[in-house]
Amino acid sequence: MLRLHLLFTLLLACCSIGRADEESGPDPEAVQRPNQYETDDITVPAAFADEPVRDLSVARAAGHLQDGATAWSQQKKCISCHTNGTYLFIRPRLTNSLGLPSEGVRQFFLDELAKLEVMDHKRLKSGTRPAQVIYAAAGLAEWDVHVLHRRSAETDAALKLMFDLQDDNGAWTSLDCWPPLESSAYQEATMAAMAAGALPQWLPSIQDPGLLDRVERLRTYLRDTEPPHEYAKVLKLWTSKRFDGILDADEEQAIVSMITQKQQADGGWSLRTFAVPEQWGRGNRAEKLRAERNFDSPTSDGHMTGLALIVLQQSGLDCETESVRHGLDWLKKNQRASGRWWTRSLNTDKSHFITYSGTAYPLLALQLAGELQSVDVGKGAPFPTSR
Predict the structure, then answer these.
(1) In whole angstroms, how far apart are CA 239 and each of 184, 272, 303?
(2) How many angstroms separate the Cα of 155 from the Cα of each of 78, 192, 349?
(3) What is the pLDDT of residues 204-258, one digit of tens each?
(4) Phi-psi category of residue 286: left, alpha or beta, with phi > 0 → left and psi -120 to 50 → alpha
(5) Facing residues of 335 across strands?
(6) Which residues lie closer than 8 Å to 183 by C-beta, 6 or more apart?
(7) Are the C-beta atoms of 184 and 228 separated by less than 8 Å?
(8) Chain-centre distance of CA 192, in angstroms?
(9) Cβ of 14: how many Cβ atoms within 10 Å?
(10) N or C: which end of the chain has fewer CB within 10 A?
(11) β-strand 43-44 against 37-38: which pairing, if any?
(12) Cβ of 61: how many Cβ atoms within 10 Å?
């Protein structure tokens, strides 16, 4: 298994000679990099900028999502926003195109929630735990909508635990680290609102006055708090599609215009153009980001292109709209050999976990545009991988 992995990685490095991405140049050290995800049974090679592109493969992308979520859960044994949290939030929505998501990942979330539920409340509100509960609630709600097609007791319990951890200002405690997915209380609040609004019948069914008050505190926070950067404005618009009362029509149109104006000449979008370096997290990535070779002209990436296309389409722009059509063309031309879409991390140049959401978001964007073919994978079956 290891020998096959090394051979595959060497092939990728060799194929990259002569067409290296302008972000970093050729990467002769790629074979020495740690695998992005790895267990006894799963090996996902490192992500790197000059990985060659391939013709669009839905199965290869779906396989990356499956392997990454499974390996992270088995190896790290926690809910992370950047990998298995994104899996359970996005993958159920792709059920019609890709088949059923992994029951194993959902069960892992339920097991983790059972541990969190009995934890001391003060400890539960510290560190990454509020984010873990928020992503668990969001993922379980998506599972109910797209897989079970009914509201489950497990999701009810997760949503109530989520609101039990809410701060008085309507947001949640955040470490403001690892942008863009765990970088501010604002980002976590948008995810909590997405979780609360996923099941159409959940919010109207609330009768407990205390819980109703917490929901309204969240609504007030998102409506009245200035987003920390333009990326957060994109999240606010996405959230407003299922959690009303946080944007009016003029504000929505202003964000749509902002997104379309940031589209790059090649049709994609770049995460790095949606905030100045000092605005990410605590601003402690600014020196790294400003030192990047292409700081003044960042390349388009899978995370932001996928997210922009999701939000634009859910805001009423169809796939015949010029900006959407050009964005979809970029996605279809820029998938990498491993099945990922490249996105450079804002944090370190080691693991580039952002390529995970940078793969999940493009798949959802393509599905919204009717660009995914149905794949028969069986119940939670693993996809073929690149190893």
Answers:
(1) 16, 21, 17
(2) 18, 13, 36
(3) 999 999 999 999 999 999 999 999 999 999 999 999 999 999 999 999 999 999 9
(4) alpha
(5) 341
(6) 174, 176, 177, 280, 281
(7) yes
(8) 14
(9) 9
(10) N
(11) antiparallel
(12) 26
Which positions ≥6 away from 234 have C-beta within 8 Å? 255, 259, 274, 307, 308, 311
Burial of 201 per CB tally in 10 Å (0-12, 13-18, 19+): exposed
Domain extents for the chain?
2-368
Quickly tell me which residue has 């090394």 as its tokens: 6
pTM of the model: 0.90
**Cβ–Cβ under 8 Å, residues 328 and 309:** yes
- Separation between Cα atoms, residue 384 and residue 64, nearest integer Å: 9
Other C-beta atoms within 10 Å of 294: how many? Answer: 14
Token pair for residue 164?
């039990």
**Type of residue numbered 171:** A
Interaxial angle between packed helices 185-198 and 153-164, expressed in degrees from 0 to 180 and rounded to the nearest 10: 150
Q: Bridge partners of 336?
A: 53
Measure CA of the first residue to CA of the last residue in the chain; give whole Å: 8
Report d(CA 263, CA 381) in Å as an integer: 36
Within 10 angstroms of residue 194's Cβ, the number of other Cβ atoms is: 21
Which candidate, 260, 267, 214, places its Cα nearest to that of 234? Answer: 260
pLDDT in tens, 109-155: 999 999 999 999 999 999 999 999 999 999 999 999 999 999 999 99
- CATH of span 2-368: 1.50.10
Token pair, residue 238, equals: 């996405």
| Cβ–Cβ under 8 Å, residues 61 and 361 | no
